[in-house]
Write a structure and sequence with these properties.
Blueprint lengths: L14 E4 L7 E9 L9 H12 L2 E6 L16 H16 L4 E7 L1 H12 L3 E7 L5 H9 L19 H11 L3 H4 L6 E6 L8 H10 L3 E6 L9 H16 L4
Parallel strand pairs: 2-3, 2-4, 4-5, 5-6, 6-7
Antiparallel strand pairs: 1-3
Length: 248
């Protein structure tokens, strides 16, 4: 792919497209990857997963939501609701060339994927990495002591905490659990047992709702971003193998 992708507001979304390894390339699938809060397409949990999928033969497109990384837009407006629109525009850009779209979302990007998958039949496979379900619990736990529009996310100067962000997570969305119970798309969830940002209970909730209809893998001792090499290897291998098992 070599095109400019813009969201509905005309903001250009930065992305990296990588063709799958030619020896095992599956030209039917495009795997789109979206990051979490304060992240971007180049964060290791996204970049390393994209690399593993490309080596497994899948074309990949990792992108930064508007206001993050090198994408245009205001970080303070980067809410889940807006990012769902960003994802829809990215899917629009790839759907004409690919009959099957898979989406891999990390953290808040996982919640984006849940919402989009209930609306968009073009998503034929869904992967959540430490996927957020209870958005209000996340917002109040991580940022409840900060004052919106004056405070910061995790004391990062480049990541101001906006009232738009908090209202979206706490009042508009609250939780994507009811939507998670409705997803019929094949769904893989991978979560670290030592994740203290998005707690493993969010994935446990989905497993409890969906049962054997979803596959949930818990990586023992892994943190929110699977920073340890062994944990990252288990994450990427799990996702690549699961995607290989998707129907051609």
């Amino acid at each position: 792919m070599n095109q400019t992708i813009k969201n509905s507001l005309g903001e250009t979304l930065d992305y990296t497209f990588t063709s799958g390894a030619t020896s095992c390339r599956d030209e039917k699938w495009l795997v789109i990857l979206g990051h979490g809060v304060t992240g971007n397409k180049d964060r290791p949990v996204i970049a390393d997963t994209a690399k593993a999928l490309s080596e497994a033969g899948f074309d990949t497109l990792a992108f930064s939501f508007a206001g993050n990384g090198d994408s245009e837009g205001d970080f303070r407006s980067a809410t889940i609701s807006k990012e769902v629109g960003d994802l829809s525009c990215v899917i629009d850009a790839g759907a004409n060339a690919y009959p099957k779209i898979a989406y891999v979302g990390h953290s808040m990007g996982g919640a984006v994927g849940v919402i989009q998958a209930t609306r968009d039949g073009r998503i034929k496979a869904l992967v959540s990495i430490a996927g957020m379900i209870d958005t209000k619990a996340f917002a109040t736990t991580e940022f409840g002591e900060e004052t919106p529009d004056t405070g910061l996310m995790w004391e990062e100067e480049s990541c101001p905490l906006s009232s738009d962000f908090m209202k979206d997570l706490c009042d508009t969305i609250v939780t994507v659990e009811p939507l998670a119970d409705c997803i019929a798309t094949p769904w893989l969830l991978v979560h670290g047992t030592a994740d203290d940002v998005v707690l493993p209970k969010d994935t446990e909730c989905v497993k409890g709702l969906q049962g054997d209809a979803v596959e949930a893998v818990f990586v023992e001792g892994a943190d929110h971003s699977f920073n340890q090499p062994a944990h990252k290897a288990q994450l990427t291998e799990t996702i690549a193998n699961w995607m290989r098992s998707r129907p051609y």
